[in-house]
């Protein structure tokens, strides 16, 4: 359902971000406070690059959590592309541009009350 939680898909994100200049803004609300993170440069590579993330130019109030994942390839349960000894997608129950493992994980489980859920720069979003 495009009006609720919706994943656009890596191929579609690649097509959108390969057309030229693209930026990303992430708006969050946690415990009644609003935060945002904006990146002046944002792109996702194609399948051959394993959907490598490129992000830079942070401004905002949420913290620069996504920059930690810059240049990482997308990790899934069956494609371990992170820089950690174990599969971060398995450990954190989500596919993401995990590094070792993450400072942000917007694909995490919404209802989780611990570090394995949906997080941004140490903020845990309990369900």
Question: What's the short story on this structure?
Answer:
It holds the Pfam family Fibrinogen_C. This protein is mainly beta and 127 residues long. It has helices at 10-17, 88-91; strands spanning 24-30, 33-44, 53-60, 104-105, 119-120, 123-124.
Number of domains: 1
Number of helices: 2
**Secondary-structure element string:** HEEEHEEE
What kind of sheet is the major sheet? 3 strands, antiparallel
Kindly provide the radius of gyration, computed on alpha-carbon positions and rounded to a whole number of angstroms: 14 Å
Number of strands: 6
Distance between the amino and carboxyl termini: 19 Å
Strand content: 25-35%
What level of helicity do the residues show? under 10%
Class per helix and strand makeup: mainly beta
- CATH third-tier fold name: Gamma Fibrinogen, Chain A, domain 1
- Write out the strand line-up for the largest beta sheet, numbering strands in chain order: 1-2-3
CATH architecture: Alpha-Beta Complex
Low-confidence stretches: none
Shape from CA axes? globular
CATH class: Alpha Beta
What is the average per-residue confidence, as pLDDT, rounded to a whole number?
90
Task: Output the CATH homologous superfamily.
Answer: Gamma Fibrinogen, chain A, domain 1
GO cellular component, one term: extracellular space
Protein name: Fibrinogen C-terminal domain-containing protein
Domain Fibrinogen C-terminal: 1-127
InterPro entries: Fibrinogen-like_C, Fibrinogen_a/b/g_C_1, Fibrinogen_a/b/g_C_dom, Fibrinogen_C-term_domain
């Amino acid at each position: 359902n495009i009006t609720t939680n919706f994943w656009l898909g890596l191929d579609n994100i690649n097509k959108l971000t390969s057309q030229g200049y693209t930026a990303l803004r992430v708006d969050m609300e946690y415990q009644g406070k609003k935060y945002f993170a904006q990146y002046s440069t944002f792109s996702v590579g194609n399948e051959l690059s394993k959907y490598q993330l490129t992000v830079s130019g942070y401004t905002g109030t949420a913290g620069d959590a996504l920059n930690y994942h810059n240049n990482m390839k997308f990790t899934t349960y069956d494609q371990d592309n992170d820089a950690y000894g174990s599969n971060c997608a398995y450990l954190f129950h989500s596919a993401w541009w995990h590094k070792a493992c993450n400072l942000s994980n917007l694909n995490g489980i919404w209802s989780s009350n611990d570090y394995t859920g949906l997080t941004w720069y140490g903020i845990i979003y309990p369900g």
